[in-house]
Backbone:
């Protein structure tokens, strides 16, 4: 397979990629940005894009992740052996256990915070990584409050579920009690 080269002569290849693939909004915007660079003859900025991968998919996804990271203040550009952008590590990373579930929080260099959940109902559940694609918050308490609210909503949606194999009511009940305890602690701290 021939290596893709993003150059001032790549307009047709970029257009073809956009036409042959279903693109997300950010991908359409990046394709349009690259085509504008080609049209304007901006080889330097186009070379910057090309540095993010050996094919259009890598370039689009890696540039998107890098730019999302900038909103948290992350500026390092690094790739793993497969050519994917290495996700930045959040500062003051903290994992808060809540029975079988957990909340992961941290902030970027510019002080913006984010959270990710690992939600377990016993057997069923869901999890996501703490990443630059997470919702942004201005401080730790607002982040933790939002995370607790989301986890509580998830747990409450399974209270009384008749699928006892996946949704263990004792796990859900214990998790809700821990959430309530943490919520009370946050309210008490805010009073001082």
Residues:
């Amino acid at each position: 397979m021939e290596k893709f080269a993003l150059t001032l002569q790549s307009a047709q290849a970029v257009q073809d990629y956009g036409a042959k693939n279903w693109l997300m909004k950010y991908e359409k915007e990046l394709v349009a940005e690259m085509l504008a660079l080609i049209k304007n003859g901006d080889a330097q900025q186009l070379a910057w894009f090309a540095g993010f991968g050996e094919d259009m998919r890598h370039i689009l996804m890696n540039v998107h992740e890098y730019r999302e990271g900038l909103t948290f203040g992350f500026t390092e550009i690094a790739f793993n052996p497969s050519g994917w952008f290495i996700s930045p590590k959040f500062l003051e990373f903290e994992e808060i256990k809540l029975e079988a579930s957990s909340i992961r929080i941290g902030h970027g260099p510019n002080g913006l915070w984010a959270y990710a959940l690992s939600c377990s109902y016993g057997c069923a559940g869901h999890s996501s990584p703490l990443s630059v694609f997470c919702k942004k918050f201005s401080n730790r308490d607002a982040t933790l409050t939002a995370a607790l609210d989301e986890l509580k909503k998830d747990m409450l949606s399974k209270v009384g579920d008749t699928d006892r194999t996946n949704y263990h009511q004792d796990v859900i009940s214990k998790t809700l009690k821990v959430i309530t305890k943490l919520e009370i602690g946050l309210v008490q701290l805010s009073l001082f």
